[in-house]
Amino acid sequence: MNKDVFKMEIKNSTDYPIIDFWGAWHDPCIAQHPELQHIVNKYKDNGKFKFVGRAVNDKFATWKQYLEKHVYTYENYICENRDYPNLRIELGIYSFPRYVIVNTKKNKVVRSNFQIDQLRDILNTL
Fold first, then answer.
1. Around Cβ 8, how many Cβ atoms within 10 Å?
2. Residue 25 and residue 45: Cα distance in Å, rounded?
3. CB 97 within 8 A of CB 116
């Protein structure tokens, strides 16, 4: 998945994709997943939002094992570092977890680099 494919995927998905860039190797990312699932459950019927997890710098086996033990209803994908070594730099992802909300109608990032406890308030304003 390169940056152009990522843009196409987001643009065609919904009005406001909420992307969680995370790593199965990173305890703060793991700790926020149950709260993110609660938020997904609350907003799943809204129609404006689509929640997507993007594991970055994970190994496929570690990522898959984690998701088999922890079932989440939002889509999750992996970008292995060996296949996409520059993805973090191209997308400006320097810390984890990193949430990004995109407005697909305006083709721009609405919010980035906020905490999980701020997400509900942000979604209520969109």
1. 10
2. 31
3. yes
